[in-house]
Design goal:
The complex is a heterodimer of chains A (about 70) and B (about 375). With about 70 residues, chain A is mostly helical. Chain A has two helices and no strands. Chain B contains 14 helices and no strands. The longest helix of chain B has about 40 residues, at about 165-205. The chains are: A mainly alpha (about 70), B mainly alpha (about 375).
């Protein structure tokens, strides 16, 4: 019986890194969106929070697209 | 019986299995979105069907694991594959009727292994490969999905604790739809592959394809379409257990659970591990339940599900062994197995019509539980 522990370890490592990365980016995006609402209500500038939120969500999308690309490419 | 006619019967049965698989597994990808109200049941199911179709076209690694490894393709006939398939379908229908999210994949492996074992001897089954590519991943993957989902849920709540409720509510519902989409895609990359693998295996045993060949295009397409159709038409019954029975789910949890499960499945599909999407999804949901609060999982329900998981492979193997033996006796055997299968399938379908679970009921069930749940949050 030969079990490919390396491949199983890869699944664990890649999943952990990808999911935690996505969650952190998404959470940061939500916080930025929330900060944007705050800024709008207090009459401050919304440029920075809007840009941060956009960047976070775009990064999320990029991670997903790259992941699918890796599967399709080989 | 004419070999080519038998091959046609097996291909049709395999596609029927694929259909029941989609029927069975809609719950995995869509239960959490429906439960948190992010998507309406009908929209969710249509959406999931389309993504299953796309996912099925993405990869063929898992199909190769099945057609080229777990049983000795030189020593079995299409009749044996047919018996194995019938075993799997019977088990799938019974668990579907009872509402248990057991694994279609393990039913398939069980059926195939049982049929091969009895018809061609134990050494025609490659047990080492079965352990490496099926048994070990089947235990490891739900655990991995659970651990990842636990951490992801914890982090999600931690990060968005101070965000405005209105913003995070909208955000997570959108995030959940995206993660449900990934989950459907992942389901296609693993589950539709199993049917492709079986059809390819049949074509190899019939001598139409060379041993070790990849699935032909028509096989890939027809399996993809069958699973998408099944997804569209089925699944309310199991959505019940998975969506609310196991743990109460909030949108951020659903997001974390599905992203974890989908990632684990896609990474595994890529390496050719034929795992059970049902088990991984359940692992993700339980992990996220624990990540939100320590008593967030109903262990009684989880225990019953685990029992069904352990039973699936041997139970389907026994039915598969019996069906494979009878089918390999000759034309009469194949006809007998096929008619028995049709009778059982019809019986279960008629029984299920007596108390059908429709989309409206799923919503009712969820609405009834939503109130105390919001207070707890």
């Amino acid at each position: 019986m030969k079990v490919d522990w390396a491949a199983l370890g890869t699944v664990f490592g890649v999943s952990l890194a990808a999911v935690l990365g996505l969650v952190v980016l998404f959470g940061a995006g939500i916080r930025a969106l929330s900060a944007r609402e705050d800024a709008r209500e207090s009459g401050g500038s919304t440029t920075v929070p809007t840009a941060v939120a956009g960047a976070c969500m775009a990064a999320c999308l990029a991670v997903v697209v790259f992941g699918i690309y890796l599967i399709v490419a080989s | 019986m004419d070999a080519s006619l038998l091959v046609i019967i097996v291909v049709c049965t395999a596609l029927a299995f694929d259909f029941t698989n989609g029927f069975h597994d809609t719950a995995n990808s869509m239960a959490t979105s429906i439960a948190t109200g992010a998507l309406k049941p009908r929209t969710a199911v249509a959406f999931s069907a389309v993504l299953n179709l796309v996912g099925a076209l993405l990869s063929v690694e898992v199909a190769k694991t099945i057609s080229g490894g777990i049983v000795d393709d030189a020593r079995i006939t299409p009749a044996v594959v047919f018996g194995g398939l019938v075993g799997a379908i019977m088990w799938n229908l019974v668990t579907w009727y009872v509402g248990l999210p057991s694994s279609s994949s393990h039913a398939l492996f069980g059926g195939l292994i049982g049929a091969t074992w009895i018809a061609s001897g134990a050494d025609a089954v490659h047990f080492a490969k079965v352990v490496d590519k099926v048994v070990v991943p089947s235990v490891a993957a739900p655990l991995v999905a659970g651990i990842v989902a636990l951490l992801a849920t914890f982090l999600t709540y931690r990060l968005t604790r101070r965000a405005r409720p209105s913003v995070s509510d909208r955000g997570f519902k959108a995030g959940q739809i995206a993660s449900a989409a990934l989950m459907s895609l992942a389901h296609g990359t693993n589950d539709a592959q199993k049917t492709m693998g079986i059809i390819t295996l049949t074509l190899i045993t019939a001598g139409t394809l060379a041993p070790g060949a990849a699935p032909p295009m028509w096989v890939i397409l027809s399996a993809a379409i069958a699973i998408a159709l099944g997804t569209y038409l089925g699944g309310w019954r199991i959505t019940h257990t998975l969506g609310k029975g196991l743990t109460t789910i909030e949108a951020p949890q659903g997001f974390a659970a599905q992203t974890s499960a989908a990632t684990v499945i896609m990474a595994s599909s890529h390496l050719g591990f034929a795992l059970s999407t049902t088990h991984v999804a359940s692992g993700g949901i339980m992990g996220s339940g624990l990540g939100r609060q320590r008593d967030g999982v109903r262990w009684g329900v989880a225990g019953r599900m685990a029992a069904a998981w352990v039973l699936t492979l041997p139970a389907a193997a026994i039915v598969g062994a019996f069906a494979g033996k009878v089918a390999s006796l000759g034309t009469g055997g194949v006809v007998a197995v096929a008619s028995a299968a049709v009778v059982v399938a019809l019986g279960i379908w008629l029984l299920s019509r007596r108390e059908p679970v429709r989309p409206e009921h799923v919503v009712d069930e969820i609405a009834a539980q939503a109130e105390p749940h919001q207070v707890a949050a």
